[in-house]
Amino acid sequence: xxATAASTRRWNPPSLLLVAARQFTSATSSxxxxxxxxxxxxxLHAPVGADSxxxxxxxxxxxxxxxxxxxxxxxxxxAPQRIERGAALPALPGAHEAVVLPVVLLHCLLGDGTxxxxxxxQLHKLLAADTAxxxxxxxxxxxxxxxxxxxxxxxHGVSPHAREHSYPALVADVRAFIRAHRLHRPLLAGHSQGGxxxxxxxxxxxxxxxxPSSSRSDLVPSGLFLLDAAPAAYTHQHSSIFAAMTHLSSxxxxxxxxxxxxxLLATLRSKREADVALRSMLPSPNDRAFVLTNLVERRTLxxxxxxxxxxxxxxxxxxxxxxxHGPDHSSGFAWRxxxxxxxxxxxxxxxxxxxxxxxxxxxxVGPCFPLPAFFVGGxxxxxxxxxxxxxxxxxxxxxxxxxxxxxxxxxxxxSHAKECASMMLQFVRDKVLPERDASSPASNx
Length: 445
What we know:
This protein is α/β, with parallel strands linked by helices. The protein has helices at residues 13-25, 117-137, 167-180, 193-203, 207-210, 239-250, 264-267, 271-278, 285-292, 301-311, 339-344, 346-350, 387-390, 393-396, 412-415, 417-435; strands at 44-45, 57-58, 61-62, 68-74, 81-82, 98-106, 143-151, 187-191, 223-227, 252-253, 262-263, 295-297, 333-335, 373-378, 400-405.
């Protein structure tokens, strides 16, 4: 693993991120949105590593433990193997004939760890075809197996709610996650907000961590795979989406036979009714469908609150405990994400906390990640087709590659899952595997 020349990294990433965190959160206020996590399922893993989070901090930001899903993509299996909560990791057939790569895949704003299912399916289909072709040819080359970790980022899904939502905080969470699961130099990938988190993570690594002899080099990704994300501050916003979500949360209606007015969300009997209520504010069916992935029945909140509280006790400095202890409701719906915090911190998600790279810095110094990075963009999206958003990429990531799919929009991994899967596997084989250390811990198999 090559380290960047000292002349390009005369700065202290954690200190810089601390300054950014303080600037970004100076105007924030306490959050009072209701607890709104999603329906629990058997594929969801409770957060782990909460006991050691005191030492897993970045930039002075306390990390929160992330709930996650885990899927093994093995071409020798008949389908992606979703590892159920509490279940032991199944034995890997022909483990001595396989190369296992841990992959941490981070979702977008208002998404969760389930948003990559189409990509998972295409990855399996391609690996299965490769495995069959290798067997037919009598090849003895080891097969590639992907061990996917799909966390719900803070304030999303079933992960804890917190007052702060900034890239320094998200980076702290991901560092803690990688350390808690003892992932050895994973491929770090993400879409939109998740992609920018991966970029900020890579650029926040210290000179010591990037050194091959460092005891903390396991935290260094073996590569980055970015889906329509750029290291830049965007000008677009989600104001209309948050306004619509807040409208459903704050509006009240008086039901027949009830003395007091009820919150509109509590009176809904189906997502179809919610869709109708959103139409005047969100005319796009695609926007409404995406927003409604965050709507869950209130009757599930009790169990989810207990999961959150058990994994993130109040002593945890990063947690917003106001989201876990409200009154229970047996009917209606609620938002699973922390709408107030995400709306209040929206400018931070669209922003960018780091200084320019060495090539664009007046002093000639700045952050740089000296390992492979692959950017996939949609030709109908502005993120990787706007010069102002992409000008810093060569300086930050000198070993980067980029591919634009002309017909794709922002959710490139949905509309063109096969192409994205193919590019990811090619990138892994050509750049990531050669970069990784010779051995991986057996605990990841």
